[in-house]
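Appendix B, Record 12. Input sequence as logged:
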Amino acid sequence: NGTCCAGGEDDETPIYVGAAANGITNRSSIVENLGNQPFAIVNAMPNPFTDEFKLQVFSSENQESEITVMNAMGQAIFKKEVNLNEGLNTIPMNFDSDASGILMVKMTPFHPYLRQIRVMRVRD
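Logged structural output:
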């Protein structure tokens, strides 16, 4: 849909999350790049993980969301309702599933660039 990363259309607006994301505060480059988007997944750590990881989500306001973890076949293997606070949120993700390998974590309302991340689960 046009020139990449020029922001000419809403599906091309970039969000830049780099090394500076370690020191996120309520006013950061993420706030400036969110525009009218309600929230964005910033990071998942550790990645790869064995049984637990933490999902970091930056929210522009207090709101509710649902996290869905899907396997490689696109099947939902875990769902969790969360309340996001304005600013940076760290959400512990523990789930009892036999799934391993690359998993997709998505949040609602879904946005293909801001609200999904891939994590890798390794088994002992």
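DSSP finds one helix and seven strands in the chain.
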